[in-house]
Design goal:
Elements: H1 2-8, H2 22-36, H3 42-46, H4 55-67, E1 73-77, H5 85-101, E2 105-109, H6 113-119, E3 122-127, E4 130-136, H7 137-142, H8 147-155, E5 206-208, E6 211-213
Length: 225
């Protein structure tokens, strides 16, 4: 049962009562965890089996099990995938509280750049397995150095601005190459609007203070005469 799996994931080292009260204490902790991740009907869920739950409920239970031990490092790979917007916000706020109150480092992995920029303090952008840029979130938004980061930011719809009817979102030409046919050098090269001959070579990591990027022809850089 789901309840038994969740109870077993809760460590007993924080319990200070009598040994025969340990199971009851762990059950209370399990119920509290389910409430934290947005599950109100804990009785039904704890008596169910995984195949009887929806994908969203399974996702919430997995998150509850992950945070049960109050880890120092939590790797969250698409933690809000397939969840409704209200639950997504609830889960992200929970992770944020863990980061602030428990000093838990959160490695948040995702494809929704709007969500990442809202919750992360530092962002690393990857393309086809290559890290192309890494910096504090505000630096990424204000002055992206890599063309792929720039393209991602421009592709984010701005709902505060008027957009002509049926206007296409900005995007890079072409499509992501298959893993067995990756381009040599910079993997964005065939799709990059700024690509030149030098891009067939793998770019070295460059750094401006705490801002790292891998590009032969970076954007938003001031050249001193």
């Amino acid at each position: 049962e789901v309840g038994r799996q969740l109870i077993e994931s809760i460590p007993s080292r924080a319990f200070e009562g009598k040994w025969w009260e340990r199971f009851k204490w762990r059950k209370k902790q399990a119920i509290a965890l389910l409430h934290k991740v947005g599950i109100k009907d804990h009785k039904r869920l704890m008596g169910s089996y995984p195949y009887e739950l929806t994908d969203g409920e399974c996702q919430k239970v997995m998150i509850a099990m992950a945070i049960a031990t109050k880890p120092k490092l939590l790797i969250a790979d698409e933690p809000t995938n397939d969840l409704d917007p209200i639950t997504q916000s609830q889960i992200l706020r929970l992770l944020s509280r863990m980061n602030q109150l428990n000093n838990t480092t959160i490695l948040l992995i995702g494809h929704d750049l709007a969500t990442i920029t809202q919750w992360a303090s530092r962002i690393t952008v990857m393309y086809c397995g290559q890290s192309v840029e890494s910096a504090d979130t505000d630096k990424i938004i204000e002055a992206p150095k890599h063309p792929y980061t720039d393209a991602l930011l421009k592709a984010m719809p701005d709902f505060n601005d008027w957009v002509p009817h049926k206007q296409k979102l900005q995007s890079l030409p072409g499509s992501i190459p298959p893993l067995q046919h990756l381009p040599i050098g910079c993997r964005l090269g065939p799709r990059c609007p700024y690509a030149q001959k030098q891009c067939v070579e793998i770019p070295h990591t460059r750094r401006i203070k705490n801002h790292k990027f891998n590009c032969h022809f970076p954007l938003n850089t001031e050249k001193k005469s």
